Amino acid sequence: MSKGHEVIITSDSSKAVALIIVKKPDLIPLDIKMLGVDGYSILTEIKGNHTISNIPIVMLTAVGFELNTELAHNLGAAGYITKPVELAELLKTISTLLPAA
What we know:
By secondary structure, this protein is of the alpha/beta class. The chain has helices at about 15-25, 40-45, 65-75, 85-95, and strands at about 30, 55-60, 80. The radius of gyration is 13 Å and the shape is globular. It starts with 15 loop residues before the first helix and ends with a helix.
């Protein structure tokens, strides 16, 4: 990507946490509605694992209700962006959560 970010994708939500443990990304964009394991469960599992709990998580989702936003933040999400995602908003969120390289 032009901003120097590497993107790692998995289509299997049940293997997401294992991939995160291995890759240890700097930031995790996470959807709420996925096949298999939902985003809240993955968020809870990540925040409960001391080896990866410090990684900031940004929820990227079509679910824009205030209750969902509040729940995500209470579970440990560092950000919440509703779809459709504006590139400028995403890049601003990333730059806010990641230290300058």
